[in-house]
Amino acid sequence: MIDRDLLDTLCEGNDSTVELCVELLEVFPDADWPELAEHFADRLRGFYDPDNGQSEEEHYENNLAWGKSIFEEYFEEM
């Protein structure tokens, strides 16, 4: 069972991020947290905006780090 309350806390109340995490946990039920973090960063590639001052690689790496922090803590708590 997916703990939405925990994800809500880890995603700082960002509903779209919670939904993405829930979706990834449902689609990849046997994945470990590093794999889920990669899927997370891959899914957010579509939101890259060159006007935000980051390169596409920096955007990916930042989202990968964000995904790692969410899923690592999620797995520790579960």
Structure explained in plain terms:
By secondary structure, the chain is an all-alpha fold. The protein has helices spanning 4-10, 15-27, 33-43, 56-77. The longest helix has 22 residues, at 56-77. The protein is globular, with a radius of gyration of 12 Å. The termini are close together.
| First-to-last CA distance | 10 Å
Total beta-strand segments: 0
How would you state the average pLDDT, rounded? 95
The biggest sheet, with number of strands, parallel, antiparallel or mixed sense and barrel status, is: none
Fill in the keyword field for this structure:
single chain; 78 residues; mainly alpha; 4 helices; globular
Summarize it.
The chain is mainly alpha-helical and 78 residues long.
Task: Summarize the topology.
Layout: H1 4-10, H2 15-27, H3 33-43, H4 56-77
Helix pairs in contact: 3-4
